[in-house]
Amino acid sequence: WANLLVSLEYDRQKIHLRRFNMIQSMNDSGIDYLFVDSLPPSVALRGETLDYQIHAVSNGPGVKFKLASGPEGATVSQTGKVTWRVPADYVDEWAQVVVAVSNSLGKEKFHSFRLKVEDAARVIEAASGG
Q1: CB 81 within 8 A of CB 52
Q2: For the CA atoms of the chain, what is the radius of gyration?
């Protein structure tokens, strides 16, 4: 979003910032592209609803989203919003979600992320220092 390329020197004593618009460069090159540039959540809370809006970038129109796999009850909308009402009695410590992202040019990518499932009360207690 900042259109910057950031690099560190080998000794990590200097940071170099260079203006770089990746989308413009890909458009100028004529390549077909599709990628996800949003960061998924890492935690889901038992008894709460997880909402995550996937943001995909493509030079082709018609980006589509489909839930390839995920915990029972998880869904993804046509616009890429992942929703999961986490059961209060969910027993597993982790949940894996895989969303197929495609465009009208025939490109398809899988956006996969893993969620640590925790109790809401425990997270609130940890955040308050208790």
Answers
A1: yes
A2: 19
Low-confidence stretches of the chain (pLDDT beneath 50): none
Residue type, 74: A
* Predicted structure pTM score: 0.79
33 and 50 Cβ atoms separated by less than 8 Å: no
Is 76 within 8 Å of 67 (Cβ atoms)? yes
Backbone angles phi, psi at 7, to 5 degrees: -140, 150
Beta bridge partners of 70: none
Could you write out the DSSP letters of every residue in 63-94?
Answer: -EEEEEE-STT-EE-TT-EEEEE--TT---SE
How does DSSP classify residue 28? Answer: H
